[in-house]
Amino acid sequence: VIPAGETNATAIVASIDDGLIEGDETVTLTVAAGTGYTIGANRTATVRIQDDDQPAVSSDRILFLDDFETDTSFNWRVTFGANNLMDGAPQDYDATFAYDYGADGIPPAPHSSGGTTRGLKLRVNKNDPTPNGSAGVNLYPSGDVAPIFFSSDYALQFEMYLSYGGVSTTEHALCGLNHSGTLTNRVTQSPDPNNSTAGGDGIWAAMVTDASDLIDYGIYAVTNSTSLPTLLVERSASTLAGVFSTPPFGAAGSPANNADASGPRIWVEVELKQVGDTVRLTIDNTQILQVTNPTSFTNGVIMLGMNDQFNSIGSDNNYVIFDNVRVIGLGPAGPAPPNITGAQLAGGNVQIDFAGAGNDVASAFAVESSPEVATGYATETGATVQQTGPGSFRAVLPVNGPIRFYRIRR
Description:
By secondary structure, this protein is mainly beta.
């Protein structure tokens, strides 16, 4: 009921039998005819309930994971570039690992377990007093001595909290695939006297903060070591105003939060995926951009970043927080894990029967044991594994201690 004199009202719609993967749904509200009031020309409104649930991913598909619950800065390489960096300007960026965004009133990211609120916060071009400050920062995961490379079909996934402070504060969050892990990838809309954005690598996407219609969404690539980034495909935020509506988002068409306004603080789930030579950017299960990769960069390192394409210094409230960053393998599924079908003592030995794939051989398996159910498993070197039939196997090993837990490893 809309009380007399009111021009708007809030209707709360509760979902029923909400499935994990069910596609988008709609709700239509219509002002019914009655006495004592006049119905305007627009009596009906339809809103979309977006299905942003993600299917479960088996652990063997997760190739990389960082939830930033602790300071993992030693596992990441940071590169920085600016229009004025060659003139001796400082490296004007902030990269804060294990940042407690909960202290800022931001709720836990969707995939954070136990309600934890720590992530990776990036800001760029906030402290540079010199001209030509357009800048970008890239972060690449690295191992002990080298970057971590990914190839074939895979997806970079993460939760993103994008923030901007008021108007005229256009910046872009970045994510990329197939990089070397040593260069800085960014673009600039301001004069660049040093041609400093040339010579990047990989293929990467940019997502706007404030829906400014200044290349709001784009996928870029660099074709050689001396060329500027090429904009492969772009999209205006105005085409996504119905997806990222305001409220709850700060600017219609952008998945960002206006730090200067009240209201809910919204995370989005982002995926940049490579399948064959097709690269696709999706946000909350909505396809934003898709392009055929025209470059030779088909494998490499993932990238996270932030880019201020303009020389002017924006609001301190312009930043991005990444959480629960993961790389998911999308290739053909591997064989199913072995399934123990029986275990017994036989003549001082432990006998374990288990099932594998029909084309498995006995040498594909090993027996591990531990005195504790959760930890401490080690290979039983005295175990023998024999095939008893197609896809059927038996492991035999001496009894080892009064209490022992066993598992079969492929």
